[in-house]
## 1
Amino acid sequence: MSATAPPSGGAARGRSRLALVSCGPQLEVALSAPGNAVASLVRLGGVAPRSTLLLAAVDLVIEDAGLLPSDVASVVVSRGPGSFTGIRAGLATAAGLAAATGAEVLACDSLLMLAARCAPGVQVWAAQPGRRGEFYARCYRVTEGGLPEAQSAIEILALAEVAGRGPWVAVEALDVGPVARAVVVRSSAEALLQLAAAGLATDPAEPLYVEGPPIHNLHGER
Amino acid sequence: MNQRIWLVLVAPVAALLLVLVLGLSYLRARVAASRLPERARTIESLPGCPAAVDILIDDRGYPHVYSGSDSALWFAQGYLHARERFFQMDLARRMANGRLAELLGEPALTSDRKARHLRLAASAQRQTALLTADERQVLDSYTAGVNAAIDRFGSSIAPEVWLLGVPPERWLPEDSLAIGLLLQLQLSWAMGEELQRAQQLARLGRERAVDLWGWSPAEARAWIPPVASLGHPAREHEPITPPVGGFGSNAWAVAAQRSASGRPLLANDPHLGLSMPGAFYAVHLEGLRMAVAGASIPGTPGVVIGHTGGVAWGFALAMLDDQDLYVLTLDELGTRELVDGRWQLMRTVTENIVVRWQRDPVLVKVRLSAHGPVVREQRDETLALAWTGLQGPSIMRAVLGMNRAQTAAEVAAAWAPVVGPALSLVAADTGGDILHQVVGRAPLRGSGAGRLPSPGADSSWAWRGFRPMSANPRRANPEEGFVVAANHDLFTEGDFPADRAFPGEFAPPWRARRIRQVLGLRRDWTVDACLALQSDLSSGRAMALLRQLRPELEPAAGPAVRELLSWDARMEAGSVAAALFSELVSGLERAVGGDEAERFSLPANPIGPEELLRLLAGGMDDDWWDDLRRPGRQTREEILAEVIAGLDREPLDRSWGELHQVRFVHPLPSLPGVGRLLANTWNRGPYPVGGDNVTVNAQYWSRYRPFRVNAIPAMRFVVEVGSWDETRLGLPVGQSGRPWSGHYADQVGDWLAGSAASMPFSRAAVEHATKATLRLNPHRRGPRVPLVGE
């Protein structure tokens, strides 16, 4: 049954926040309405973080909320560590949206974002896929308010080193071996929105690479 | 010339057969290592195993697991489930998470869409966050055990996994919770009933529909909500389960004064849809602080039906209505819903489903209304679902509580925090108490009773929370010396006073009445006598229908009618009269309701055996007798005479078992390609069986596919409380889900005969029955998984 309603948007106009997560094996886009409730969410597992796909997902969440791109006041984006191409796709998309709509761009460390997925009151290790089958990892304590505080520097760990620590939080598609997993209560994109609302997403909108680009010799060997 | 024919025709066939035989032999050898020992003593060192575990495997393949560490017991249960039932577990978690198409391709897409719309994975995630530290530790240990098997055997963990060529994914705690929710979904049916009723109301009109349902005028006024009529047919991908009607279970407890030994008895046979392997896996877990044995669900820790050293318990569905549909009022864009005059944005979640052998994934968009997920979006008809499965903590809380309980009261108390599913718990303890307690919590509705889709835009019809479990019916140690739960209406059948009533769609009372009648006849009940009662084939419904039809049958006395009139109403597989009776009832249903179904485009014949009985007894309008397909007006006498005359055209040499057969079908042979080649190897049956939808030995068939058995007693469990070594626990096919295991189908004969395997409990009796042993040791160099809370 449908009924005639006043135009959508209304109070949400100009006060909505968009989150982009494209630096891992799952692409996520979320849009929050006023009051920080998440209005729409796109979660695509096992897809390449192509910028066209990211833009299509952005269109979808905005349309699902009955808004226009110009209604988005800020874009919060994960800046790595993680997939080299994914990080750049996310940041470029955020910058493009900002240029077109005047929205503010906020960036956030992807490990902090993962820790913010967890239930409060625990110490967790966050993991993102690295090179050569390794992981970028960092330990956080998630406060009772649900905000994470770093307990260590970012480390590069082999699979065998992961087993002695935990519990771990990572995207569902990432296999970190036979380890205890932390309890997660929200998606990565929703975690980004929460961090932005709490004022913790304030990094520069630049890629965060833990390692430099791989160097190849003339024979193509590392 | 002959040689050429041989070369052209026979040689390729022979070569193909040879390849097939060699292929199967290779597969069998390849996966042999992951089979549990059946006649050997084996020691394995496992990374992640918290402590040493001794597993004694008896002659039915039931494992008796001993360890000084509770964590090691849960680890071992996960390890055993994975080795014996991994393919079943993997299918179940994929079905719950909407990821079956990643394994099986496009044919599984519909199932995945339904699971995504119902938000089962999201609800499992929500339940994970509600786990206590203790529950989390149990689940992590169980998960580590499953993953130890996956790490050890990889794709060779099960022949099906190797054949399908998708390496097994790591098990997650959420997978176990998702399987629990899938089971809960299979125990909920109300949304389908609601939609069917809405269609009947829209097409038959209010007066006729209310007559069909047997509601009083007061009930009709209170229960029919003010919503526009709904009429669209169901679409395949909609997660609205079709009405099943009458499924259930039998559970009873007999007090000490009625048993031969002076100890209480408990019997339970849960009825579930046919599956191969069966739904349950028998297990006995014994540690320093816990000793429990019974039936478990592969993929989840603990024992769901069984006994500890102090108490035994079983379940039947309480038939409480725990699902409601709401008709939403949306704006033109479909993004906002109207609630109490205000437009509210609906949350939207878009996900992709990866489909095997298909290049592009499929997008699924789910809208979440104030009542729950949207389950139907058809033009001007948008329906949202409120369901207890999307609320409250996991059923695991209750299972763990029961597994540590020592009294009937403790078993019941374990359910207090759990919202659903709603079940009739029957328990008996060594203190001599027997108990019938409805567990699970009834929704508190502002208006109506959830019998029809309600107006979503009016919050006075919305759920306002849940009734506490203390408000549920509870009955301990009744004077008659037994309690019975068989999905019947507990209030009209006199089990409980009406002030404790809850809205429900109860099964016909025939099983409950028969059990009560037989229990009341004796004071020397034994385990064997309870098993015999579980196999009872007497049909109360047949007696009642034949009593009503006798005036019309007697004058018609042809050979078929004579057979019927001399029948004892037992639905024996070898009975010709049982077959004639079933044909007669089907014929009457078609004659009475087929014309309405046709004229009003109803998705199903509105007349079933219970409506027929009410019509014959004068409880429905005589207009139902009129055949709308024919000119003039037909009377009861004319219709009955026609159908009864037709009965004599039925063959008199065909027994009920020739029509009514059970076939256990492994899921893989139903897939195209190599699966079909395996059908004859991995399927079992068909077997002729007695019983029907209302006999105590319930062998259900669907009106959509007459007489083909689709649900059965999925386990038979009988205990004499305290004499735990006398426990009987029988499975329909076998303990193992592995097609070449000796325990894959070794119980079919017992199950058909109504017998059940012994399941000893004392260490001495277990050792006496032991045929093989498996010792699990912690791997010295392997990492031990740190548990949350440690």
## 2
Amino acid sequence: MKEALLVLADGTTFEGEAIGADAPDGISAGEVVFNTVLTGYQEVITDPSYAGQIVTFTYPHIGNYGVTDLDCESRRPFCRGVIVRDLARRRSNWRSDADLEAFMQAHGLAGIAGVDTRRLTRHIRDAGAMAGAFGIADERALKAAATAEPGTSGVDLVATVTTDQPYTVGDGPLRVVAYDFGIKRTILRHLGTLATVEVVPASTPAAEVLARDPQGVFLSNGPGDPEQVPYAVDAINGLLGEVPIFGICLGHQLLSLAIGAQTEKLAFGHHGGNHPVRRLSTGAVEITSQNHNFAVVADTLAGKAEMTHVNLNDGVCEGFRVLDAPAFSVQHHPEAGPGPHDASYLFGMFVELMHAS
Amino acid sequence: MPRRDDIESILLIGSGPIVIGQACEFDYSGTQACRVLRQEGYRVILANSNPATIMTDPEFADATYVEPLDVDILTQIIEREHPDAVLPTLGGQTALNLAMALHARGVIGVPGTPEMIGANAEAIATAEDREQFKIAMQEIGLSVPASGIAHNMDEAREVIQRIGLPVVIRPAFILGGKGTGIASTRDELERAAQYGLDASPISEILLERSIAGWKEFELEVMRDRADNCVVVCSIENLDPMGVHTGDSITVAPAQTLSDVEYQLMRDAAFACIRRVGVETGGSNVQFALNPANGDMVIIEMNPRVSRSSALASKATGFPIAKIAARLAVGYTLDEIPNDITKKTPASFEPVIDYVVTKVPRWAFEKFPGTKGVLGTSMQSVGEAMAIGRTFPESLQKALRSLEHGRRGLNCDPAEALFDEMTDEELVTCAAIATPDRPFQLEAALRRGITIERLYEATRVDPWFLDQISQIIDERAHLAAVGIAALSRADWRRAKRLGFADAQLAWLWGVDEDQVRATRSAHGVVATFKTVDTCAAEFEAATPYHYSTYEDDDEVVASSKPKVIILGSGPNRIGQGIEFDYCCVHAAFALHEAGFETIMVNCNPETVSTDYDTSDRLYFEPITYEDVLNVIEVERRSGDLRGVVVSLGGQTPLKLAGLLSPELVLGTSAASIDLAEDRDRWNDLCARLEIPQPAGGTASTAEQALAIVERIGYPALVRPSYVLGGRAMEIVYDDDSLRAAMSELAGFGTLGREGGLSAERPVLVDRFLEDATEVDVDAIRDRTGDVLIGAVMEHVEEAGVHSGDSACAIPPYSLSAETIAVIEGHTRAIADALEVIGLVNVQYAVKGNQVFVIEANPRASRTVPFVAKATGVPLVKAAARVMVGATLLELRDEGLLPEPVTGHVAVKEAVLPFNRFPDADSVLGPEMRSTGEVMGIDRTFGLAFAKSQMAAGDRLPTGGMVFLSVADRDKETAIGAAHKFTDLGFTIAATAGTAEFLEGHGVPVATVVAKLGEATGVDAVDLIASGKVNLVINSPRGRGARADGAHIRAAAEQHSIPCLTTAAAGVAAAEGMADWARHELRVRTLQEYHRGATDQLELPL
Ligand SMILES: Nc1ncnc2c1ncn2[C@@H]1O[C@H](COP(=O)(O)OP(=O)(O)O)[C@@H](O)[C@H]1O
Ligand SMILES: Nc1ncnc2c1ncn2[C@@H]1O[C@H](COP(=O)(O)OP(=O)(O)O)[C@@H](O)[C@H]1O
Ligand SMILES: [Mg+2]
Ligand SMILES: [Mg+2]
């Protein structure tokens, strides 16, 4: 067992021990966020939206049921590290084919275990998401790395996770082009049952997409600050009104920028699988999977879009419908993976929209 | 959707007495519901026969009926109160069944009658009828275990052709799981199916494909009127399918489910609650999962709050019952705020950042003849829950919370229990689920038996086994390194795995205080975290804490003077809801008096562990170490005035001597010891000239024999420092005395309760035959003023444990002089013990002589009953007295009204024999009841009749009474028999009893043969024939299975009321006589307490 330390940019330290892969120089740095899911660690770790971030799991036992290729949300983990209270020594589940720790080692992902993750979570909750560094290096080196870490504002993280080549998945009856800003496989599985999905790189211009003659365009989830992906906003502008659009998470934020609304960074974001969201058209409450640090400023939608979903915990805009174009989007994750299936009807709405146009 | 305005009054049905499978959790849910509904402005009418509940406190409802939970009685209540709605989903199975019966009668749930809210009759039927449920689930695409119904052996064999072996067999219409079993072979099937058919009154069994060994899970779900559904908590059973969830070690949240599997289960649970049609409220859905391939089947759903929902509420901080009550009156989840965060709505799914483990507690030792094997019907009597950051920590905390003589999973004397076994034997033993299983797993892993092998044998998931083995690895490391060389990291790791200082002390052979001191010197001290429903995502407004060993502490400082109240731990026979009631009352009273109240307890069922009850809640084991941790943190964060140790029964009382004397509020530790220490107590009685039964103390059989030489037989042998008469025995000769002593010596070496050792000698007393037992509860204040709460006369004679006998307020046969003597003795004893607070004194009255049996300077089991009977809030007063108030001051404050008279209240015990068909139902000095009920009416007879009805034994109004009593009871039986004949009953009796009765002019219609005699109908046949309506049978033989035992077993099996003492027979006769002349009438407790009953005609 190798003792390790986590140091936040504000100097707060946490004791623990190193797990997973050995990091270069014994240092892993990134923006520290927490996720409150009780199950679904593998999906979280492999979700490209966590690019640039170190994920803290608030649930203490992580790794209990191992990992399986089936639950990977992308080709590899894009997060910078994993912080847990306790890493399972032994996994147990018929679906699993490897240990979480072996998986982390195989993908060069370092982690730290034994941390008082509740103290860390409370700290982030109060002070806001902040940069941090962990590893077996000494405290000074870690502090320096944490301070030097730019965080997720002001950098284009999408470019680091998007596919470089278009590819096609699914065999559903419709034709959809999906922008990969860091797309999750669970989304592709959903879309794939509805459509033949051509996945294109984030930088694909509108014209190229329209040339593929899709019945609908999907804007995927992805990491970081939507304002750092202006090329995507431009592309969406070119698509609005031309073709039905459905966006999730970062896709939702980009759509909002495209219609002239604004986004902002939340103090510590929404990361979990238990957020109540009201669907305003019916009043129903759906329990949703969430993973974002940025959000659409609801007021700025006025005259451009109608808010369709709202987070009941803090009033954050969770979804809107564009007024003068067939386009809608949600902030939460109707595809789940991990999380509840309550909002999966949204894929059906996308189909309806495509049929209607 | 807002609150419903079309209803104004709501009848809430409680769950009645505490029985196995239905315990304090329904007081917790009912109390929450009452509170909420009244806050919402509804008129709340409550029916519950259990006087020891908080919910039946008169201030919790507008009209409180402490009346039998019986269809006739409830119909009367409904006719009297005309409620607009009936809420049946918060009072357990009892309330559901009653609601269905009322519905069948057309009294509720049909047009023109009160509406059923929460769940309607159709939903209840769909969930409760196993066949209907299976069909409904298949309709929505969920799998259920294959099954079939059989009415005879041929049909049973046919079903097996179709579904295959092994099968679970469940008889229809049985009580408490009798006749259920698992059959794996043809032979077993023949036996088990026949047994099941015999057990079922309609000769019907359900044969269901057994999936024993699959993983078992539960989801607690809620649904509102707008069809919003949430899962509050997932629970994984450590013990696989085949062991009832109530008897399993359970863990929240589920540990070994991937998200993919969990979400499928969640979808299935919602589909289930929607199909069953539970409109609003909480439901419990049980699933089984094949560990080999993830196949999932649904086992059952309970359309109501349950034991598991109480656990889920305590485990997450999400108050299911409270919210269910709001949903029932029209609110939707998103309209209800989350209590803990205050900012977010209740329409979310709690997430936690700790692990919760519940471990049941059993009482097999009290029921000789039972096998002690766990199965598909629940047998545990209580449970402890613990919160830790990891599973090992919470498991070890839960095990020490159980107070079953273990300090954790290992590192105590009993860890050697299985040393003699071979590996093979140990694995074989562990394969059979028993209370010992966790310790057998530990022992097996400690000797290096592999996880794979244990998993094969037990089907306990390898993840759990590996977690357990981390405790074992740490034990080895700790033993090897030793206390002196342990590093800070070592200390931290050990504590994080849940090791108690007491375990480490044993491991290293040092003193517990030394462990604490050394550990603290390394800076490793308990830190307290918060239960907040959201894993710290939002700030928590509710101080609900648990200890762990982490970096920082979340307890905030406060300025009010503080009092810690120590709870009573898991329910057990002898210490149950009554003590929780006392702790809760103290919390209320001290809060009102301006104190900040701090509750410490580990029983998830209770009202005391509701974070709404006290100002702060620590969900912690009640051990020296854990209590000290709370004291330290509370001292750090404010002005701690003291600790209440005398309201939670024996559990906190045992700690009194270990705490700093100035912290113990009320009666001092020294006085407590004085009452427990036999020699000093004898001296005290002698000084006060209060007679005691002759006796002495013995540590060996020889000493015991020498005492008996002096005092004569019969003698009562009782261990000191036990609860509920544990291991207490009446002996009539040298052989049985020797046997009793050697049994106790055996307990001693294992550290078991009642164990004999030099420090814990056995008391050998002359047994007073045919004496009337009397209980007194009193309060003494610091000025020496004494308030007698009540003098209670027992129905059964001394020798039947006070907890198992019926008793009446006011006394119904004692003379005024005797009562005066008893009151005088009580004052003298309270003074001599310098009691400040409550004291309970027990007496045996023989002829005119009053003997004192024991005094307990603490709250007793009867305190809530006294309060309900007299209208005097004894515990509230006592709590104030303990923090310095005088009785005079309390009278001035109006807190001590005069006791009301003009009615009689009878408390009756409720015994769990239907769960233990192999145990004899005769009463004795070892307590075996799990709960109690109260009957209240104008006369003793009527109150007694009600108490019997409430306890589940409706006295007959005509027919045949069967008498068979011991010689010493024959005299008493005559009176009863005369009354029965006067009432028009015919009498049947065994030969000896018959002869005696006829000799005294009682006509005996039927004389039955001795069991097994060739000629004539024997007693068991007669009872089985259904001709007998009441059995009165007192034991005479002392053989293991004397005739009497068979008679009582037959009565139990055929659900014929059976009284096991002649005294109870007399009381029953009196009850039946009064009942024959006067209808049973219902009145509210509020009316009784107002004295409104004076206006009732009292014709007797
Ligand atoms: N088909 C089965 N095979 C094996 N065990 C079963 C089966 N069905 C139920 N059990 C076990 O019996 C217990 C009690 O069954 P359940 O249907 O939940 O009845 P109850 O109403 O008493 O809770 C369950 O907790 C489970 O462990
Ligand atoms: N000397 C005695 N003669 C007859 N009965 C006795 C005597 N001592 C105790 N008992 C009976 O045994 C029961 C249990 O004894 P007690 O000392 O009260 O134990 P516990 O502490 O468990 O309440 C009493 O309720 C009483 O019925
Ligand atoms: Mg069940
Ligand atoms: Mg007693």
